[in-house]
Structures are given as C-alpha cells and as structure tokens.
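User: Run a structure prediction on this.
Assistant: Running it now.
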Amino acid sequence: MKDVQNQPDHRNIPIDKVGIKNLRYPIRVKDRRDGSQSTIASINMYVDLPKEYKGTHMSRFVEMLHLLKPEISLKKFSVLLEAMKKNLNAASAHIEMSFPYFIEKQAPVSLAPGLMDYNCRIIGSSNSCNDIDLVSEVNVPVTSVCPCSKEISEYGAHNQRGIVQLQTRFKKFIWLEDMIELVESCASCDVFSVLKRVDEKNVTERGFSNPKFVEDIVRDISEHLIADGNITWFSVSAENFESIHNHSAYAHITRGVEPAK
C-alpha cells in the first residue's frame, strides 16, 4: 500500500512538534509506601518532522507506549524517547504524561483516613544531541491566611484555598510524595479529604497562627529547594483563589540551582 506520510513535501517548512494529544492510557507509577499504584494518564507525544516529509506515522506513537509497561520509570521514559526518534526518523522527541496520584492522608487530630488526589505530570524530551531532559511536576491544593488581614483586623482574617505547582529537575530520583510534602509544609495549612470537628478546629487555628502571602509560600519552598543538593532546577508558582476579591493572587519563581562549592 502507498505510504502517504513518506511522500516528499515541497513547501520546505520543517515542523517543530507533531504527534498525538490527550491519549488516555493505564499506567503504574512509583509509590513510596506501596511500591507502585495504578492510575490513568493523559499522554501527549511529539516528534519533529523534517521539511522533506509530508507527515509522521501517528499509529506508531501508541504502539511504542508498550515500552513503558507495566510501570513508569525515568529509565523507561528515556528508552521511549529514543525509540520515538529512531522509529519516526526524528531528531527530537517529547512526552507529557499527566495523571492523578493518590495518597492516603490522616486527619491531624482524629487520625481519620482519607484519600487525597494530586494532579501530577512527568515531562520528558530528547534533542538532536541525545540529551535527555526530565521534569517532575506536582499540583498541590493548600490553604493560606492573609497576614495583612490578620494584622489590621480586631478579630479574624480572610483565608482561602490555593494551588501550588512545583516542577523540579534533579540528579537522582525524587519521590512525588517528597515534593507534595514540601509544598504542604510551606503553606498556612494543608488540605485534607476527611475532617472531624476536632480536626476542623485544628486546621483553622493552625492556619490562623501561620499566615502566608503567596510571596511567602513560593519563597519558603524555594529556600528548601536551593539548599537541596539533589535539585538542579525548579519552578514554583502559587495561586490563591481569593475569598474577598474577584481575582486570584499569584507568585512565581524559576531558578537553576548552582552546585554547592
């Protein structure tokens, strides 16, 4: 049968990224407590397309996902990126894999268990020099109490839920749980799926005694990451869905971390 994708193209324009988006696929990811957990990922896969080719072979992207089974690992990500380049005659390859990650979390006083879900993502790419780049991302819900509101009010302070996005590059494997726990420790208070009345009292008072601006949250997280010799680069942003405004408060820091001397 005629292979239309391999036909020449005369427009002389290379394509930076071509491939598939939003493919839902079952995966297993590393779990610090249980070894691994099953989840469903939404996957984007791209390669570059040289100017002389009309198209790429879309079905091959899905076929090559079997290289990742049964468990997602950084090593398998690297293998898949190189396989994409080889099988699709590409100089570069890129993967984005987004998935919900579940952690059992106890309420702070009653210790009632509940499952918290966190939106996570692994981003991988390989360039024409075969350099592999991997980024881990977590999106963590938090609560924050406004320091200004607490300072100027006779009683009370406005508080809100927010979302912190943390991306890291690293020398050695880093657990998603470690990234999540770092973010939660730098908020006014973390978020729980199950709270009894004694727990609600605890998180309300804990947040009130630990007021944080979005600026404080991203700076506190950054301070920890800069001191961590395993982290080579990070990006952290905090968005508070303000309870007294019709807009969000936002702060963002991106840094390459210099090796310790």
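Strands lie at 15-31, 35-49, 93-106, 113-126, 132-145, 159-170, 189-190, 231-241, 248-256.
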